[in-house]
Amino acid sequence: MLIGLGVIGAVLLVFIISIISIYNSIIRLSNGYKNSFSQIDVQLQRRFELIPNLVETAKKYMSHEKETLEAVINARNNAMKSTSSLSRDPSDVSSIKEFNQAEGVLNQSMGKFMALFENYPDLKASTTMNSLMEELTSTENKVAFARQSYNDHIMHYNNGIQEFPNNIIAGIFNFNHVPQLEIENVEMRKAVKVEF
Question: Is the entire prediction scored with pTM above 0.70?
Answer without folding.
Answer: yes
